[in-house]
Amino acid sequence: MKNILKNRFLKPFGTTAIAFLLCNTAFAQAPTAGSDGPMVDILLYISYAATVFAALVAIILPFFKTTGDTKGLIQTGIITAVLLVIFAISYAVSGDEVNKIHQTFNISAGGSKLIGGVLIMTYIMTFGTVGLALAAWVKGLVS
User: Fold this and answer.
1) 81-113: buried (b, 16+ CB within 10 Å) or exposed (e) per residue?
2) Boundary of a domain, candidates 48, 65, 82
3) Could you tell me if 19 and 42 are in contact, meaning their C-beta atoms sit under 8 angstroms apart?
4) Do 126 and 79 sit in the same domain of this protein?
5) Cα separation of 23 and 49, whole Å?
6) Which of 56, 96, 121, 143 has the CA that lies 20 to 30 A from 113?
7) For 96, phi and psi rounded to 5 degrees?
């Protein structure tokens, strides 16, 4: 079981983490926003591909694992639907302002709204996870 989890879930996320580290290193070495160079572009595309791959693996593999287990398949579908609803709410709440910094990187109003939605969803998920961890810790102390 440990090898299955390692091969199916940890390797795609490890690949994404490595791609993000390479991308951040390239950004740290870039002197200005206008002269990033081809290495940054290549690393960005690798980072995008690794992120999409990890997301697809994280979404699709549970469906394959639970094909014989209808209860698990329903739970996976519900979790996916809840995540989509959280993203939809985050996207609806986020603003679509375009500042000078956005114009420097050619980010449109729609792109700004998408970035804001992803950030708000990240905040919601982070605070929700910390809240659930604290609730579990308090429950463990009480019982």
Assistant:
1) eeeeebbeebeeebeeeeeeebeeeebeeeebb
2) 65
3) no
4) yes
5) 12
6) 56
7) -120, 35
Distance (Å, whole) CA 33 – CA 42: 16
Q: How many helices (H) and strands (E) does the chain have?
A: 6, 0
**CA-CA distances (angstroms) from residue 97 to 86, 91, 104, 110?**
21, 13, 14, 9
Q: Take residue 50 and report the two structure tokens written for it.
A: 């690794």
| pLDDT averages per 10-residue partition of the chain, 143 residues | 52 55 54 57 75 78 70 79 92 87 80 87 91 92 87
pLDDT in the model for residue 124: 92
Query: Is the pTM here over 0.70, yes or no?
Result: no
